[in-house]
Amino acid sequence: MTIERSNPAGLHATPGYHHVTKVEAEQLVFLAGQCPLDEAGELAEGGFDGQTDQVVRNILVALESVGARPEDVVRTVIYVVSPVREDLSAVWARLTESPLAPAFSTASTLLGVAQLGFPGQLVEVDVTAAL
Q: Which residue ranges form the domains of the chain, and what is each CATH number?
């Protein structure tokens, strides 16, 4: 498997992700959007920080279950329930400072949304990995 990440000339500088991710792989792994629910199905406490940390834990468990690592992630979409840019930036910073950080060096999209699936849910991350 090979993963090539690049930022072509003519595109703006990024805060850590790459505009383009090119993959040659035998398998692709698509995770369901990972929510801030613990193993018992309870919503993580602690607002954006607590929910982001739970999402990171869930993604790491899901990746490990298929023999993947954060470095194998080729695409992420991050959903944050907030119209406030600083909230989105804070979630991005927490993700890129977590054990999952290498996953966010790839093609990534960060979105502010009106709501997510569970009452009180503030964060969700959609992940694709290549093996």
A: 19-130 (3.30.1330.40)
DSSP-assigned beta bridge partners for residue 125: 34, 78
Judge contact between 125 and 71, C-beta under 8 A: no
Phi-psi region of 34 (alpha: psi -120 to 50; beta: other; left: phi over 0): beta
Q: What gap in Å lies between CA 29 and CA 62, rounded to an integer?
A: 10
Q: Which residues contact 37 (CB under 8 A, 6 or more apart)?
A: 43, 44, 54, 58, 118
Q: For 62-96, write each residue's pLDDT tens digit.
A: 999 999 999 999 999 999 999 999 999 999 999 99
Structure tokens at 63: 């990746």
